[in-house]
Each structure stands twice: as C-alpha cells, then as structure tokens.
C-alpha cells in the first residue's frame, strides 16, 4: 500500500498520461535505461564535454584493471558518448573537472561532488571506518613529507626494499600512500601507464571548489538524489550499496523527502520504489529500442546484480572469478542490451597485437524471439565495437543455440 495518492501528484505535476500509481515492468525498464543514458543518447557540444556530462549525470565511473577488452571505465563512457576518446579522462583530470576516489569501488567522480567524499575520508582518518590497510602513522607522515618536498610521486618512486606484507601483499610505502589517499591527504593527479601518481590534495583541487563538509541531512539527500537521477528508481538497499554507515542517513532523507514531495513511491511488480517526480517525464520520451549496446560487466546499469534480476530478469555473474570448469558463459562475458532488454551475452577478447576481436561464445537468452532483427543490430554495433577495441577483424567461435547463424554478418 503506497503512503499517498500518486494520481493526485501526477495531476499536480502535469503527468496526465500516466494516471496510475504503478508502473509496468516495461515502463520501469524504460525509465531505468533512459536515466542511465542507454542506448547512447544524441549528444551536443564537444566530445569531451559530453564525456564530462555523462560522468556528472551517472555520479561515478568504475575503474577496473582487466584489459581483456578495453578497460571498464572507457567502455562505460563509450556507451554513453559515441564520440568518446580514452584521452578524455586524462584531459578532464588535468583540467580538475574529474578526480579519483571511492564510490562503491575505485571510480572517477565529478569534481563538483568532491565535498560529498569528505564524510568517508573523515571517518577513515578518525578510525570510525576501517580501511583494508593498517595505519603506520610514522611511515604515512614520511611519505607525505617527501611528496610535499619533491612533488607528485608514484609508488615505485619510494624505497623498494623491505618485504611486502599483509593480506594484500603490498609494499609498506604503497599501503601508506593508499591510506593517505583514502583519508583525503593525497589525491591522484594523473596516471602513467595506469600507475597512480600521488600528490597533496591542496595541489590537486581547484582553488574555487567548495570543500565544506556536508551535514548529515545534506549528505543523505545527496545520496538519494544522485542515485535516483542516474538510475530512475531505487530502493534503500540500492542507494546505500557498499557505501558504509549511510543507511540511517539515507533512511532519514527518504522520510523527509517523501513528506516534502521531493520524491515519490511507485509500485513495480508489487515492490515499492522511490522516484524523483520529474523523472517520470522520461516515460513520455522514446527509447531507441533498435539500437544495440555491448555492455561492460562493470557498467553502472549492471553493477547491482540482484537489481538486474528483479527489474530485467537477467541473472548475471562475471565468470572470470569463477573456476574454469564451472563457467557457463565464458571468462569475460559482456551483456548485450537490445529492444530495451538484456537479451544476450558475448564472451570476448581483443588481441591488439593481431588486431582481432575474438568472440569465444555468443549466448542468446531463451526469451529472445526476434533473432533476425537482433542479428542485424548486433552486426552493425560490432563494427564500431571492433574499432573501439583497436581491432580490424572479428572471429566468432561458437553460438548458443547453435542454430543461430551469425557468421556472415560478422565477417562481411
């Protein structure tokens, strides 16, 4: 039972076309995809501005080291900006418009959101929240003083002698650097061959940036609004996913924002979700269902696997962490979005030396019916995806079901 009359809210805000307090599953999926900027929206302005806009809208882009195909942060942005170039991230960091820190995982964040990383940093520095490395205060001070005196440094610039220790088998100076980074004393000024370059926070931040610590109320509302803008609709557990010690703040924010009308509740498949009232206008916009997108396993849309099962009936596991004999879909299987649904998985590897994109296994979901139209859409998207991965040819090894014939579309 919803806590207020949704219809009256719709009339008040002009959403006359909906006239109901529930969304169908199809409508919910559409709202989620449009909020996630999928399939790739039409962008205006410079290509770099479009990349920044996508980061600011989504709130974070997860960084990942796996390079079987183009790394996750580039892949995710490529799917939101058809003109995306990997140099954009380097340029945006150099321009102090984007920075690295922790969302639910290591991520690129918009600089405009910097102050909302301070509660986590302060909690780690005070010991209220644990970090995975033990604090060696004396070593941390020594590391910070050297960076202050010498300028930006990488972990390899420090003394390499001494045993690596701890669960992560990481050098003590690297652990000190990471502790200082998580506590906010250091930031990543750039990366060189994907290695972090650390500098003092005061030298990385723009001078005009607001660096005041948000109140609990501000932080809670920020988490709610940021999540709902990027994801269309959500639940408490989704908004606080892997963000420690935030459930009480977000719970209070949700209660307050419901009372003030800043958010509303909708019913999807007998489950209540929170939504921003203005987001419902997206349901009046078309969804480019004919466009197909090959997604990263770490794409913002997919990162909460239970949510994908609930809303898209898509049970997904990244099997590179699964023993080989237990894998069903392949080492690095990429979900495929088409017709507003997740309809297939493609286990791929880019051989950049030979410039070949290998598709080890292409698996269709049992629910996929329009296989000819899907094959045409996949063939078109693969041409762009091949180039994005610095390849000029494709080799397809296996399709499931085997009756799905696709080779001529890939090779021609």
* Beta-strand share of residues: 15-25%
Question: Tell me about the biggest sheet?
Answer: 6 strands, mixed
CATH topology of the domain at 6-38 and 214-284: Arc Repressor Mutant, subunit A
Rg measurement, Å = 23 Å
Output the structural class. Answer: alpha+beta
Output the helix-strand order: HHHEHHEEHHHEEHHHHEEEHEEEHEEH
User: What is the percent of helical residues?
Assistant: 25-40%
Mean pLDDT: 91
Q: How many beta-strand segments?
A: 13
What does this structure look like?
The protein is of the alpha+beta class. Among the domains are: 6-38 and 214-284, Arc Repressor Mutant, subunit A (Orthogonal Bundle), CATH 1.10.10; 131-205, Arc Repressor Mutant, subunit A (Orthogonal Bundle); 317-411, 3-Layer(aba) Sandwich (Aminopeptidase). 36% of the residues lie in helices and 17% in strands. It has helices at 6-13, 25-35, 47-58, 72-78, 87-94, 118-126, 137-150, 172-183, 201-204, 216-231, 236-239, 247-260, 305-312, 371-388, 407-411; strands spanning 61-62, 98-102, 106-110, 186-192, 195-200, 264-268, 271-275, 293-294, 333-338, 341-351, 356-364, 393-396, 399-400. Strands 8, 9, 10, 11, 12 and 13 form a 6-stranded mixed sheet that branches. A hairpin with a 2-residue loop joins strand 9 (333-338) and strand 10. Helix 3 packs across helix 5 (87-94), helix 7 (137-150) packs across helix 8 and helix 10 packs across helix 12. The longest helix has 18 residues, at 371-388. It is globular. Residues 1-20 have low confidence and may be disordered.
């Amino acid at each position: 039972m919803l806590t207020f009359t949704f219809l009256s809210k719709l009339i008040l805000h002009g959403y006359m076309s909906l006239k109901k307090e529930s969304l169908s599953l199809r409508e919910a999926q559409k709202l989620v995809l449009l909020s996630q900027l999928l399939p790739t929206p039409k962008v205006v302005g410079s290509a770099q501005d479009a990349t920044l806009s996508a980061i600011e809208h989504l709130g974070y882009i997860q960084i990942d080291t796996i390079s079987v195909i183009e790394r996750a942060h580039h892949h995710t942005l490529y799917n939101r900006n058809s003109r995306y170039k990997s140099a954009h991230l380097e340029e945006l960091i150099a321009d102090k418009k984007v920075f690295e820190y922790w969302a639910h995982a290591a991520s690129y964040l918009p600089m405009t959101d910097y102050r909302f990383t301070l509660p986590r940093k302060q909690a780690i520095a005070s010991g209220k929240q644990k970090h995975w490395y033990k604090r060696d205060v004396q070593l941390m001070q020594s590391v910070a003083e050297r960076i202050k005196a010498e300028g930006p440094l990488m972990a390899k610039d420090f003394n390499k002698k001494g045993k690596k220790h701890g669960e992560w088998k990481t050098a003590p100076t690297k652990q000190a650097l990471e502790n200082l980074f998580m506590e906010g004393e250091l930031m990543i000024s750039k990366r060189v061959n994907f290695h972090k370059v650390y500098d003092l926070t005061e030298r990385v931040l723009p001078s005009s940036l607001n660096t005041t610590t948000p109140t609990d109320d501000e932080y809670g509302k920020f988490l709610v609004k940021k999540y709902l803008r990027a994801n269309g609709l959500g639940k408490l557990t989704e908004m606080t996913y892997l963000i420690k010690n935030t459930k009480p703040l977000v719970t209070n924010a949700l209660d307050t924002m419901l009372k003030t009308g800043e958010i509303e509740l909708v019913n999807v498949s007998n489950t209540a979700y929170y939504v921003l009232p203005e987001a419902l206008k997206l349901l009046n916009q078309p969804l480019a269902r004919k466009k197909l997108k090959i997604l990263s396993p770490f794409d913002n849309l997919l990162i909460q696997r239970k949510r994908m099962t609930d809303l898209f009936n898509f049970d997904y596991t990244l099997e590179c962490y699964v023993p080989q004999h237990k894998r069903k879909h392949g080492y690095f299987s990429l979900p495929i979005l088409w017709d507003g649904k997740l309809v297939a998985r493609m286990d791929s590897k880019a051989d950049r030396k030979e410039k070949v994109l290998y598709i080890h296994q292409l698996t269709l979901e049992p629910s996929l019916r329009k296989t000819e139209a899907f094959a045409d859409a996949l063939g078109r998207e693969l041409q762009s995806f091949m180039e994005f991965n610095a390849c000029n040819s494709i080799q397809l090894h296996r399709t499931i079901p085997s009756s799905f014939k696709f080779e001529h579309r890939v090779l021609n």
